[in-house]
Structure formats: C-alpha cells, structure tokens
Amino acid sequence: MVIAVASGKGGTGKTTVACALALCGEKDVCLLDCDVDEPNAHILLHPRIEETVVASVVRPHIDEALCDGCGACSRVCRYRALTVLRDKPLLLEHLCHGCGGCSLVCPKGAITEKAKPIGRIERGHAGDIRFVSGVLNVGEAMSPPLIRQVRAQATGCRDVVIDAPPGTSCPMVAAARGSDFCVLVTEPTPFGLHDLSLAVEVVRKLGVPFGVVINIADIGDDRVERYCRDQEVEVLARIPYDRTIAEAYSRGRPIIEARPKLQAVFSGIVRDIHARGGSAA
Amino acid sequence: MTGSTRAQSTATVIIEAAMKIAISAQGGSMSAKVSGQFGRCAYFLIVDADTMKFEPVGNPGTGMAHGAGPEAAREISSRGAQVVLTGRVGPNAKSALDAAGIRIVEGISDSATVKEAVESYLRGR
After folding, report:
1. CATH number reported for the structural domain that contains residue B70 in this entry
2. Is B4 among the domain residues?
3. Which of A78, A81, A83 sits opposite B73 (nearest CB)?
4. DSSP annotation of B102
5. Which residue, among A184, A173, A114, has the nearest Cα to A144 in the 3D structure?
6. What are the tens digits of pLDDT across the range A9-67?
7. CA B83 to CA B63: how far, in whole Å?
C-alpha cells in the first residue's frame, strides 16, 4: 500500500504525520522522503544511512562540428531548451526535461546524451523502517526527475509512506501520482483552507483516494471543517494544538513520543487505508 | 571637428540602410500599441529603419506553454532583426537574443504606438 502525505500549504505537519504513519504502521514499512528540495524526515526518524548514490538526469551534448543548424532538435523540444539561432544551436540547460527527443531526431547524429548529476539518494534504516531520502543539489531547478527516482525505490515493502513536497505543482504531483491513498495535512487557517482546496482538486484529478488530517485543529476557525463537510471529504484525524508536540519536534522527536496516545490514531489511519483496499506499489 | 562628424554620419547611414528593428506589439500595424512583454506579445513588427516599411509577424511564442522567449527570439532572428524594442525581456529570451546578436532595448512603454517607439528610438540613437 502506497500512502502519500501531501498538503498544499507548507509547514502544516506533513513530515510529522508521514513519520508517525511509518512508525505506527505494521512491520515492513518504507518511508520515502520525496521533499527533495528540503528533506527533513531524517530529523524525526534518525535513520542510519547505509548507502548514498548519485542521481542524474540526461542532458544533450552537441557536437557542433557535426551540426548543420537544421533546427530539428529545436522543433521537437517543447520547452525550447534548444533553439537554433544563426544556424547554431543554443542549449538552455535549465529548461531541459531530459526526454532525449533531440538526440533521437537529429539527422546528423550530432547530439548525444550525457548524464548530469542533480542530487543524491540516501538509503538506510530507522529501526525496522526502510528509509529512502532524495536530496536535490542546491541551485537545481527541477525536482520531479529526482522525486520519480526516489519513488522507484518503493519495492518489496508492505507499506510505503511518501513524505511529499508542499504545493500542488509538478513536484507534489510526481510524489503523489499513482499512490493508493493520499493523506492531505492542513490547518484551520485561511491559508490552510485555500491550499487544501487546491490540493483536493489535484488529487481528485489524479484519481487518488484521499482524506484530511487537520493539524493544530483546536485553533483558527471552523472553515476547514465546513469545507470538508461540503465537499464530502473525510477527516481522518484531528491533532490538537499542543506545546508538548512542538517541543518534541524541535528536539527531533516524533509526535507519538510526545503524545503516545496518538499512536492509536495513526495506526487507525493506516488500518483504515488498508481496509479500503487497492495497491499501486 | 566638422570632418569627423561627417565621417561618423556616413558610417551611420550605411548601417541604417540594412537595419531591421523588431518591436513587440499588441496588434499587427504601426499604430498598434507596443507590448510590454517580449516572449508572449501577440505580434512583432519588423521595421526597415531606412524605408519605414514594415512586416507584421505573429509571435509563435504566444501559444507555447514553455520556451516562449527563445522561440520569439528565433522568429525575429530569422526575419533579420538586429534590434528589438520591447518592455521587458525575460532571462531565457535574453540568452537567445544575445546568441542571435540582437540588441535589446527594454523599457518601452506600452502606451506608445509602434510608430512612436521606432521614431523615438531612431531620434535618440
């Protein structure tokens, strides 16, 4: 069962919830930290990293001696990472999505693919939990290729919990797409509601079943609750506003250590998701 | 003094004869307003600075989800433009215009017409 934890708004408690779900799941759990711009699940889980591999994407390499400036590469590139100007190709590498189309269509064979490192993937264990984290290089603009590579590590485990990046754009989609279930974490604030409604639209479009966890549920207003009722969105859990939880978090301790009673809540969520069935893996 | 001025203006005339100016525009005529955007303007007008003859060109960049700037630069480069007058040029478009050797003149107000922008540029040069 693949469970993605996403949010829309940043800072609502995705990592708190993702780590709690991983810790409260039954055995054979894998946690994938797909928030590769700023991975932080390790802060709560303290994994032992056993292996680090370089993650790369492909970029075109152009042999200008072979290029006759025909422009076929530019026409196939929908991002215009390649443009032929004055019969010479201009490569704007940060626009390239690494599809390899240019090297396929070049009639002169002037374009080859070169691997370009964009980050790394760390693998290890946190107790019984298999732990995988993607780390995007500073300055790298595009995270989805790395997120997809981290997701590809989700093999052989009974449960996979994905800590998704915030937002509702390509990185979040790359992390949540194809999951069996998506847990959307929000807070009862105007921003929380606004970004939740965007996230709901995205997961509906992705066709992923979902439910909501309302964090710091006893502050703010009741508009998130009302939204969930109106939209017939299930509220899976409400986490109280609790200084003890915040203090534990600031010391890198997971929420269920601060409030052991919440263990039942999170294992209940995992059980419920299992009861719904489905498997994307 | 007089001699050197004359030599300079002769050189200028030679350059002007060949110079084509591209202007980002909201419509396809000389009376259309300038467009503040380079990559996503509706039209370019390619104006011959010598004869003031012009050619309207639809911007192929407008319909693109990505890469509008480089595509717009490729289009005006293929039409022989050597200078572009516009409101603002994005970073990707700038790289492409630089590679094409096209001079960028930014900060043209979109309340000016294409004709006014060209005339003002030619006067101020």
Report:
1. 3.30.420.130
2. no
3. A83
4. P
5. A173
6. 999 999 999 999 999 988 899 999 999 999 999 999 999 999 999 999 999 999 999 99
7. 23
B35 in a domain, yes or no?
yes
- How far B75 CA lies from chain A's nearest CA (Å)? 9
Which residues of chain B have a CB within 8 Å of the CB of A81?
A: 67
Q: Which of residues 24-43 of B touch A (CB under 8 A)?
A: none
Domain boundaries, chain A: 2-54+121-276, 64-109
Phi-psi region of B65 (alpha: psi -120 to 50; beta: other; left: phi over 0): alpha
The β-bridge relationship of strands A29-33 and A2-6 is: unpaired
| Helices first, then strands: H and E counts in chain B | 4, 5
Q: Which CATH architecture has domain A64-109?
A: 2-Layer Sandwich (3.30)
CATH number of A2-54+121-276: 3.40.50.300
**A84-122 b/e (C-beta count within 10 Å ≥ 16 → b):** bbeeebbbbeebbbbeebbbeebeeebbeeeeeebbbbb
pTM: 0.80
Chain B nearest C-alpha distance from A11 (Å): 30
B100 touches chain A (CB under 8 A): yes
Q: How many Å lie between the alpha carbon of A131 and the closest alpha carbon of chain B?
A: 36
Number of domains in chain B: 1
Task: Kindly state whether B95 is in contact with chain A, defined as any CB-CB distance less than 8 angstroms.
Answer: yes
